[in-house]
Specification:
By secondary structure, this protein is mainly α. The chain contains 24 helices and 5 strands.
Length: 458
């Protein structure tokens, strides 16, 4: 019976100091002891351990792996660390690793190599694989063509179930996951597919054209990977074919690739929400990271300076109604939070193509209602809190609550509208949820709050 691989979670439960022990073994270059540990760990967990090591230790840990294990580990290693690890690996060894990979994973590895090393690797690997990788390298990394696998099972419409089974057997060693058998015309134009279970349910002499599934959902190689992910999610697909303008099948994208895409897109949106750049992950320089973050901080600083100007213009009002200054942080925070919530929800809907611009006003109106309801509830709590905790006059409590209501409605509508406006003009809506929205709400929120206070009491 084959020995069951342990997960990193199980190992940490058995020995919480396992990672520290691995670091010690790396320092001592005790390769046999390390291999003894790695032998019982899943390749994905070996990659996780390597991801938590410094660059030199990671290079050593990877260097002692055999080719088959290295090919399973390399695709799971953080891409920026992977580039640094491969700097010290010979072109011959990289070629051996690439030969073990599916074409989409092989393309990811070759794509990050320096041009001269990539050329050597492509010369060393099998000619057929080399041509496939070269073809995939023509597409953008984040496109359907960039993530597709050019290995798939395919038969012509004249084939029988027996022919399809034979084709599956021939391709079994080269293809890890076979979900569909694609059916084409003689010129490779895709016309449908048959499910794997159909091979078991029909007589061997049955023609595949008789049991063909013709409800095809396909993507073009230039389509964005996010669009592919949304299509597969919407239609519950485990695999989707990639075809060119003439309907010729070029490859397929499987669900395991899409899981990676969803993670990448989520991470990218989180970075944009914070006003950060992907370059931060690559750079080890504090100065460079500082330069990347500073522009957004300058936007925030400029906006807050405008807020200070707004405050100074209402100096007389604040001096006469001193209690009003105590609640500035409250109304600003509530406005900023409301705006950010609405913006994030809108960005998510836009990224998943849930919004059509023809009915975008309905979404904004819905956010208006949400802002109104939230403002009423928060305003009611604020009336009670200010009147009983701060002994404020009931008039002030009511005016303060009305200010909060107006600010929350305004912030929610603005937060929902800006991503739509940016999308309409071709900009990335994810940036709208960063310092821009927060700063805008601060400036207008302060103006609204102090204007209402001034009108009510002065």
């Amino acid at each position: 019976m084959a020995e069951e691989l342990k997960s990193l979670h199980d190992l940490l439960e058995e020995d919480p100091e396992i990672v520290d022990n691995i670091r010690v073994l790396i320092e001592e270059q005790a390769s046999q002891s390390l291999l003894g540990i790695f032998k019982d760990i899943h390749p994905a967990d070996i990659a996780e351990i390597i991801n938590h090591l410094n660059v030199n230790d990671a290079k050593y840990a990877f260097s002692i792996l055999d080719t088959e294990t290295a090919s399973e580990v390399i695709t799971e290693i953080d891409e920026h660390l992977r580039e640094k690890i491969l700097e010290d690996v010979t072109a011959e060894k990289i070629a051996d690793i690439v030969d073990e990979l599916d074409t989409d994973d092989a393309t990811d590895i070759v794509g990050v190599l320096p041009d001269n090393v990539a050329e050597q690797v492509l010369e060393y690997i099998e000619p057929e694989s080399s041509e496939d990788v070269k073809e995939l390298l023509k597409y953008r990394e984040d496109s359907a063509g960039g993530i597709m696998n050019s290995d798939f099972v395919c038969v012509t419409e004249e084939a029988t179930i027996s022919d399809a089974i034979e084709e599956v057997r021939k391709q079994a060693d080269n293809i890890d996951h076979i979900y569909y058998i694609f059916v084409t015309k003689t010129n490779n134009e895709l016309i449908g597919f048959i499910l794997l279970k159909s091979l078991l349910l029909h007589p061997l002499e049955t023609k595949v054209s008789e049991i063909l599934e013709e409800d095809l959902i396909t993507v073009h190689p230039e389509d964005d990977q996010e669009l592919v992910a949304n299509l597969m999610k919407k239609y519950d697909l485990v695999s989707i074919p990639v075809v060119n303008d003439n309907g010729i099948i070029l490859g397929r994208i499987t669900i395991d690739d899409i899981v990676d895409v969803i993670g990448e897109e989520a991470e990218e949106d989180i970075q944009k929400i914070a006003g950060l750049s992907e370059e931060e992950e690559i750079s080890d320089s504090s100065i460079k990271i500082s330069r990347i973050r500073l522009p957004w901080l300058f936007v925030a600083l400029f906006g807050e300076l405008i807020s200070a100007v707004v405050l100074s213009s209402f100096q007389a009002s604040i001096e006469k109604i001193l209690i009003a200054s105590f609640f500035i942080p409250v109304v600003m925070a509530m406005g900023g939070s409301s705006g950010t919530q609405a913006a994030i929800v809108m960005v998510r809907r836009l990224s998943q193509y849930e919004i059509w611009f023809t009915n975008s006003y309905k979404k904004i109106f819905k956010e208006f209602i949400v802002g109104l309801l939230n403002g009423i509830m928060c305003g009611a709590i604020l009336i009670i809190a200010t009147h009983f905790l701060f002994n404020a006059e009931i008039k002030f409590s009511i005016v303060l609550s009305i200010s909060l209501l107006v600010i929350m409605i305004f912030a929610t509508v603005v937060g929902a509208s800006i991503p739509l406006i940016l999308k309409k003009f071709g900009a990335d809506p994810a940036v709208a949820t960063g310092p821009f929205v927060t700063t805008m709400n601060d400036v207008f929120g302060l103006s609204i709050y102090l204007s209402i206070i001034t009108v009510a009491f002065l």
